[in-house]
């Protein structure tokens, strides 16, 4: 019973800290203080350390020998490399999904985009923020590609870093409509069982997202000078 309780606490702390890191409530590059976190969250050091270990496993925290842990810093180079590998891997996952997804799964994806459209329209700010897991268009596709190695790598090594990047691009109103329209085109290609075109569209979509975030980085750098 004690182990289960400790595990539950660690899991809750993990999800809370993950949310704070992705949203930016905990800043990139911020040094991790176990003492302050333990006090703020009202938990003992045991489950806190387990939560930090889980965050490190999904690349949100970096541990340096003799220096402790800190939140990952997404530099220009890291984001560029992330989007390069994402373009290749998600593009290929979409190619596979075009032949592997069942008709009911494709119908579910269409309904998912209907809900995204309603969310954008009702947000008042025209922001396109997706929830994690099966309510995320990209996650849903690569989870249905029927290649467990590919799914595990994207999900465990890239996904949370991608979510951090999306916090920036999702705030641009013009990107919301464009992104949604591109999503629809990708599903249409999957529905038509055209793996090559589906892959091309996904790669173009991710490349466009990179161009958007690159402009944000450049403009932010210019404003800080």
Question: How does this structure look, described?
Answer:
The protein is mostly helical and 225 residues long. The chain folds into 2 domains: 2-71, Arc Repressor Mutant, subunit A; 76-224, Four Helix Bundle (Hemerythrin (Met), subunit A). The protein is 74% helix and 4% strand. The protein is built from 9 helices and 2 strands, in the order H-H-H-E-E-H-H-H-H-H-H. The protein has a two-stranded antiparallel sheet. A hairpin with a 3-residue loop joins strand 1 and strand 2. Helix 1 packs across helix 3, helix 4 runs antiparallel to helix 9 (195-224) and helix 5 (103-122) packs antiparallel against helix 8. The longest helix has 30 residues, at 195-224. It is globular, with a radius of gyration of 19 Å. The termini are far apart. The relative contact order is 0.13. The mean pLDDT is 90.
Topology:
Layout: H1 2-23, H2 34-41, H3 45-57, E1 61-64, E2 68-71, H4 76-100, H5 103-122, H6 137-143, H7 148-169, H8 173-191, H9 195-224
Antiparallel strand pairs: 1-2
């Amino acid at each position: 019973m004690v182990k289960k309780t400790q595990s539950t606490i660690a899991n809750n702390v993990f999800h809370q800290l993950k949310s704070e890191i992705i949203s930016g409530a905990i800043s990139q590059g911020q040094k991790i203080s176990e003492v302050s976190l333990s006090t703020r969250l009202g938990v003992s050091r045991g489950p806190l350390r387990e939560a930090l270990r889980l965050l490190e496993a999904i690349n949100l925290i970096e541990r340096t020998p003799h220096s402790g842990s800190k939140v990952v810093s997404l530099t220009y180079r890291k984001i560029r490399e992330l989007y390069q590998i994402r373009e290749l891997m998600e593009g290929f996952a979409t190619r596979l999904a075009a032949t592997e997804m069942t008709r009911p799964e494709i119908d579910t994806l269409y309904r998912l985009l209907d809900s995204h459209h309603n969310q954008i329209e009702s947000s008042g700010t025209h922001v396109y923020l997706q929830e994690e897991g099966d309510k995320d268009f990209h996650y849903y596709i690569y989870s249905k590609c029927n290649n467990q190695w590919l799914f595990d790598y994207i999900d465990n090594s890239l996904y949370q870093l991608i979510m951090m990047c999306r916090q920036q691009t999702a705030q641009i109103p013009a990107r919301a409509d464009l992104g949604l329209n591109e999503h629809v085109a990708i599903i249409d290609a999957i529905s038509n069982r055209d793996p090559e075109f589906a892959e091309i569209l996904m790669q173009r979509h991710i490349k466009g997202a990179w161009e958007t975030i690159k402009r944000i980085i450049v403009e932010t750098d210019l404003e800080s000078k």
